[in-house]
Design brief:
single chain, 802 residues, mainly beta, seven-stranded mixed β-sheet, six-stranded mixed β-sheet, 9 helices, 10% helix, disordered N terminus
Amino acid sequence: MRISRSRSVLLAGAVAVTLSATALPAAFAAPSATAVISEVYGGGGNSGATLTRDFVELANAGSTAYDLSGFSVQYLPGTPSAGSVWQVSALTGSVASGGRYLVAQAAGTGGTVALPAPDATGTVAMSAASGTVALVSGTTALTCKTAADCAADTRIVDLVGYGSAVVREGAGPATGASATASVARAASLADTDDNGADLSAAAPTPVNAAGQTSGGGTGPGDPGNPTEPGTVRVHDIQGSTRVSPLDGKAVTGVPGIVTAVRTTGSRGFWIQDTAPDADARTGEGVFVYTGSAAPAVAVGDSVLVSGKVDEYYPSATTQSITEITAPRTTVVSSGNALPAPVVLDAAALPAAYVPSAGGGSIDALPLEPSAYALDLYESLEGTRVQISDTRVTGATTAYDEIWVTVDPEQNPTRRGGTLYSSYTDQNTGRIKVMSLDTTRPFPVGNVGDVLSGATTGVIDYASFGGYNLQATELGTLTDHHLQREVTRPQKGSELAVATYNVENLDALDDQTKFDTLAEGVAVNLSSPDIVSLEEIQDDNGAVSDGTVGSEATLKRFTDAIVAAGGPQYDWRYVAPQDGRDGGEPGGNIRNVFLFNPDRVSFVDRPGGDATTAVAAVPTKKGVTLSVSPGRIDPASGAWADSRKPLVGEFRFHGKPVFVIGNHFTSKGGDQPLHGRYQEPSRSSETKRVQQAAEVNTFVKSLLAADKSARVVALGDLNDFAFSPTMSALTAGKALKPLITTLPADEQYSYVYEGNSQTLDHILTSPGIQRFDYDVVHINAEFADQASDHDPQIVRIKVDGRP
């Protein structure tokens, strides 16, 4: 089993280990291009052990043999004393490309199983629990006894510290070694520059250069390239749960037809058994991961694959992909017919999305493909499927991905999307489509378009989006000509207030971005009187040099609005302290008010700054602000490393209106809807609930001073109308969420993984009794977008009555 932050990490370091730049100096900051230490076991011959000897196993992920002449494996106790010395075991011969090399060490009195014939033999009695092993160019004993000193010795090719070893790569040593467990690198030889992350404990599996294992079998170094099928079939590998019963085991001669080949990114190919079993839970397709090597097979080849079964986790919270790694492939014949694809449509989908494990892992739960959509997709992992005439629910991304639904009647929006309406009612028909055909341009579609005809491919899984269809044959995109909305202009008696997340806008951005966003304000929003902006950065964006002002950014933006036919807006904001408001490092993100001085006036009250809290001030004529613009309790822990709300006092037709611009903490860090933990943890929600409570308390302070105070709270709240965040924000009926006043199929402003959902909101106090509210869809549903958020607007009758 292996977990990786991204497959690109595996490809960039597909060879081996990197000594951590944190633990060791930069001399060992790049991974070895070839030979690495793949397994270390010091428990041989101990009480309770099966194997009679300790061993060190080397591996070579390079494309040519690695010569070990004059090299050595050296051992140092985990906590070296003044008298500790490195013990040397000399090596000869070489490690074949993709092969293993076994160094036997001292034997004990316990154990009953011998190692396979070693390729080199030493006499070191290694500790079962803690130690350091180094692969060294040379046979002279090392002298270093700290990680830093060892890094200065350029003879060290690779190094593994285990247990409590002082000398190790990265933040921590590999853990879990014992009399019955070795520490071993994943079959991919993946490297994250950290022994603790790169190697994990498991039963020892020594393999020598001949590919032999203990007991006379063959390992991943050389499975023998059989010409007849072995006893293991694909459905035996996939099993009836999400994790293969053969995880970590070597398999030989697994038969199948090559159904698809991936030549970029995570390279490899899919095979499918043409003789399926009768169990719907056990999949018949599997991915064969070739790492950096291009697959040497073609679609239609009948093959026998030998290698090691591995569960690859794209991240710690995702489900896994069952794979055969370090493969050896025999092509038996070519040009064979492919297995018929499984048809995925509304009739095939279960009503429920995923089983519950009370927040725990669903890995071990028996699959129920007739009951849960994610179980169905898991049972089809690696299998050929076909979808037809599917509606686009998430526009084409910059990564050539498009979201469709195979259940067009499931929670449709007015404009063709699929509405995300609760935590418990997931949309089972959504699936991401990608293409394995790199010779043709990927279709560019918007929400509501249709991927017409048949799209055929294999089911895969990824950290972003979960189950996806890797298409070998892609349908034709039918354009349904989705139009960007234009809201009506406000009347003379209406105050128009809008919110717009402009996605990290700064003065270094291209003029095209400014112009497109400006058109959204001037044309699509019909020039609101007040615009609360989220994600305005300082003038040099991600450059971290102490700059906190946004004058140049706002000048370019407001000039672009004028050029688009809008008014000359003025602006107000409170500059943050450098590096204290989260967002893109160096960007100093903040909320900003734009306002049209010909229609509305801003009440300036001095004293507002990054650390001063705004307060409600009761007067005989109602409530005012202590400072304007100001920030809500910026010292509160709720706003640590996060955007602080901006509060301003405006006057329209002589009447005060208080506007609170918000940008709550993002959902980063939450477990995915499709992940291995169900129900998923929403860890970021705690912070947003705290932030919502702060805003609610401030609004109540305004209403306590004047129950008829007109308050508009708006912005990117990064949460849903049905969330605890919204409950905290509206507590005591201090604010009313306007999104719920729209028809259900229009309650969205953002599209994520094919779900149309609401992260942006406008809320009003009881003193605002007549309003006209609109979400203006100009971005989220389109492949070509200036921001990933749609703006919203409310037109208020300040003097109106119900």
